Amino acid sequence: MRRLYLTLYLIAFPAFSQDRAAINGTVTDASDALVAAAAIELKSAETGLRRATVTDQGGRFQITPLPVGTYSLTISKVGFRPTTVNHIDLQYSETRTIDARLEVGAATETIEVSAAAEAVNRTNAEVGAVIESAQIKEIPVSGRNWASLSLLAPGAINYGDGAQRSIRFSGHSLDDSNFTFDGVDTSGVQEQTQKADTRLNIALDSIAEFRVSTSNYTAETGAAGGAQINVVSKTGTNEFHGSTFYAVRNDVLDARSPFDGSSLPPFTLHQFGAGVGGAIIKDKAGRLSRRADSGGRRDRSGDRGRDRHYPRRRRHASLRLPLR
Q: H or E segment at 137?
């Protein structure tokens, strides 16, 4: 018996739906005096996004909101050598503090440094973790279920199979968790037990990263008293890129549980797919980025006695209008 399911998603979100990161800092000179009216320029080499501002009378600056990604920050003023800070990695809902010291010199001489990872959150007392792209790609999870990786966050409690419906945070019940996808609420309710679940079946390869905030999150986050799980999808960049995947599970590789007999029941699971992304308009303020993901699943179990095949399609379009 074979059943065929086909689902098509076309999701369009505004630019600011996942623009929750920020950069701030203070600019001083060699004598630790505050530098006012210094020019600040932020640039993303991947997407061509540019933002500019100047420091205030206290030498402070702030650029927000920003999408997740890697940036370079250039600070300049007449009479000082420009300073460029490279490799600034911004994660979802993160505020990075980049302090700089300008040295007297010609404008043709540039000082370049690389941003170091912040060991301490200097902005708020939030408890949580960001599951980064490398972890999503490299850590194997059963059934390629992205939610299982939320167990890496502090306060996560697994009282079942490690899937989304059996993970609690910091002693809260399941219905206290809140899920968002690119800034849009996607929390659903599964059965009458009020267990929170996402309404979207998000493909693992469509996720750039996701943040799990378990407690002490800021007032801008709400809708539930438990954990806040914010998923950010991949978007196109100036360069076209793609990926493929194939995962397999079967009874030959499985271990026998205490409830199995002398031999394992027949079981085979194949998961496969591909994705591609890129920019339609390069280096424009109104950039239309596009990523499409296609995947399938085929499994066979001796207990159910049937073969099932689930083709799946995921398409995400986002119109990005960075604020100037």
A: helix 133-138
Q: Which CATH superfamily is domain 19-114 in?
A: Carboxypeptidase-like, regulatory domain (2.60.40.1120)
- CA dist 210 and 233 (Å) reads 9
Backbone conformation region of residue 277, classed left if phi is above 0, alpha if psi is from -120 to 50, else beta: beta
| Domain span(s) for CATH 2.170.130.10 in the chain | 127-233
Q: Cα(124)–Cα(98) distance, rounded to whole angstroms?
A: 16
pLDDT in tens, 89-135: 988 888 899 999 999 988 777 788 877 666 567 777 888 899 998 89
Helices (H) and strands (E) in the chain, counts: 1, 24
Rounded alpha-carbon distances, angstroms, from residue 228 to 36, 38, 170, 176, 224: 38, 37, 12, 9, 8
Q: CA dihedral in degrees (74, 49, 20, 135; nearest 10)?
A: -90
Q: Are 211 and 199 in contact (CB under 8 A)?
A: no
Question: Residue 221: what pLDDT?
Answer: 75
Q: In the predicted model, what is the mean pLDDT of residues 248-277?
A: 82
**Torsion angle, alpha carbons of 45, 51, 55, 59, to 10:** -40
Where in the chain is CATH 2.60.40.1120?
19-114
Beta carbons of 298 and 310 less than 8 angstroms apart: yes
Q: Give me 60's structure tokens.
A: 């402070």
Residue 146 sits at φ, ψ, to 5 deg, of: -60, -30
- The answer to whether the beta carbons of residues 149 and 136 sit under 8 Å apart is yes
User: Nearest Cα to 323, choosing from 25, 32, 49, 24?
Assistant: 49
204 phi and psi, to 5 degrees?
-60, -40
The three-state secondary structure class of 162 is coil
Q: Give the fold, CATH level 3, of 127-233.
A: Ferric Hydroxamate Uptake Protein; Chain A, domain 1 (2.170.130)
- pLDDT category at 298 given cuts 50, 70, 90 is low
Q: In the 8-state DSSP scheme, what is residue 150? A: G
